[in-house]
Amino acid sequence: MKIFITGGAGYIGSHTCVELLNAGYEVVVYDNLSNSSPQALQRVEKITGKSVQFIQGDIRDETVTTEAIQGCDGVIHFAGLKAVGESVAKPLDYYENNVYGTLCLLRAMQSNNIKTIVFSSSATVYGDPEYLPFDEIHPLRTTNPYGQTKLVIEEILRDLYKSDTSWKIMILRYFNPVGAHESGLIGEDPQGLPNNLMPFVAQVAIGRRESLNVFGDDYDTHDGTGVRDYIHVMDLASGHLKALEALTFPQCTAINLGSGIGYSVLDLVNAFIKATDKPIPFIITPRREGDIAEFYADPTLAKNLLGWSAQRNLDQMCRDTWNFQSQNPQGYV
Ligand code: NAD
Ligand code: UDP
């Protein structure tokens, strides 16, 4: 089986390539490298001892995508812009890249009669929790343009399936991906100031940042700081493999990929200090606008439909993040 992986040079995509190659799949990575380095793919080859076919291209270019995708059996669609704050400032870029790009990709698939797709959605489609944990039937009502692009793409996929029930579609709603491959060769390499907690903590530990701002300690959580469901990126990668394997029959299914466990900001900081023996100086600052106090997944459906559940704990997430950060202090250079 040959799988076309859009955004395969990125953080989650590169780890998923490792999982797929190890399972015997061929992969074609299609990426415009707007937020990634070709080095990640060389390292995927080093880890697996297998070769990755790489095509530098943009999903918004339907003609090039239609040609590049020829001969593939299915698609995992990671390509997209992902920064919530930036999406508020540049909504048109986000709709164009994520929504228009996905439309072009789906048309390229249609022209080649490829009807199997696993799509990277996000827990952000649930918006403010009406109840917790989030299960897949929780109402969808996201609060920012990034989340809106994910929701619109989900709706497009559901409509596509209604129009042609021979499609095999899996929508994966990720919670908070962190960590790195245990080799320390590939990991998360954010450009500029990290938006997310774990890469920020890792950059404090390596000395690239002076201290961590903890955004608020007055939430209604066990220690007042925000609670999230962190998921090791290699667990997430194996979730994609399970999703592909489960697409043996036509369907359009949305599934949460989370651990089901919520950890606070201070839980994560303390676990990081314990795992790495590095001090993490922090200061408490006001809440970040738009943040939700807590959210975590109900991962039951993933267990029932995919036979998947998260295997790696918070200590492993911290240890593997540090392993990548300490081996690559400036990221991929
Ligand atoms: P990433 O930025 O590391 O990877 C995305 C990749 O897509 C990059 O390599 C980038 O160069 C490429 N890309 C972007 N636009 C493209 C385009 N128009 N054509 C071709 N390639 C393009 O991000 P990631 O963390 O690996 O996320 C992968 C997917 O998962 C994204 O769709 C993201 O929205 C989704 N997601 C991520 C998180 C997270 O916290 N990392 C959480 C939920 C969902
Ligand atoms: N957070 C923080 N400082 C940072 C980045 C994040 O205190 O520099 C907090 C944030 O308020 C949230 C948690 O860490 O409670 C996870 O934030 P992240 O941006 O990683 O994920 P998201 O909020 O998008 O789920």
Give keywords.
333 residues; alpha/beta; Rossmann fold; binds nicotinamide-adenine-dinucleotide; binds uridine-5'-diphosphate
What's the structural blueprint in terms of helices and strands?
Elements: E1 2-6, H1 11-22, E2 26-31, H2 38-48, E3 53-56, H3 62-68, E4 74-77, H4 84-89, H5 91-111, E5 116-122, H6 145-163, E6 168-174, E7 176-178, H7 197-205, E8 212-215, E9 227-228, E10 230-232, H8 233-246, E11 251-257, E12 263-264, H9 265-276, E13 282-285, H10 300-306, H11 314-327
Write up what this structure looks like.
With 333 residues, the chain is of the alpha/beta class. It has a domain at 2-177 and 231-258 and 297-310: 3-Layer(aba) Sandwich (Rossmann fold), CATH 3.40.50. Helices cover 40% and strands 17% of the residues. It has a 7-stranded parallel beta sheet with strand order 3-2-1-4-5-6-11, sandwiched between helices. The protein has a two-stranded parallel ribbon with strand order 7-10. Strand 1, helix 1 (11-22) and strand 2 (26-31) form a beta-alpha-beta unit. The protein is globular, with a radius of gyration of 19 Å. The two termini are 32 Å apart. The model has no long low-confidence stretch (mean pLDDT 97). Bound molecules: nicotinamide-adenine-dinucleotide (NAD) and uridine-5'-diphosphate (UDP).
